[in-house]
Amino acid sequence: MQFLDYGYNFCEQCGSNGNGTRLDCSHDISVKKAKESGKTELCWDPGIIVIRCRSCHQEYDQLNLQFTKF
After folding, report:
1. What are 27-35's contacts with CB under 8 Å, separation 24+?
2. Centroid of chain to Cα 5
3. What is the dihedral of CA 9, 10, 13, 14, to 10 degrees?
4. Distance, CA of 4 to CA of 57 (rounded, Å)
């Protein structure tokens, strides 16, 4: 929806959309928390997906995400 609404994609947390910015789909409610609360259906709910740049995604989830290039 973001691209359809604005014509481009950007990080919903910091607004970054510069060249080379990696954008991820991040769950607003983590998959782990959804499972722990017994609400696994939230894992597939597109309404809780937030577009975040890699830096904001790592900060939000407090993870060290490592992705490799193909």
Report:
1. 30/61
2. 18
3. -170
4. 22
CB 56 within 8 A of CB 13: yes
- Mean pLDDT over 53-62 rounds to 88
Q: Which residue has the tokens 């510069």?
A: 18
pLDDT band at 14 (very low <50, low <70, confident <90, very high): very high
Please state the pTM of the whole predicted model: 0.72
C-beta separation of 55 from 63 below 8 A: no
Query: Measured between alpha carbons, how far is 20 from 39 in angstroms, rounded to an integer?
Result: 35
> Above 80 in pLDDT, residue 10?
yes
- Residue whose C-alpha is closest to residue 34's, from 50, 45, 22, 23: 45
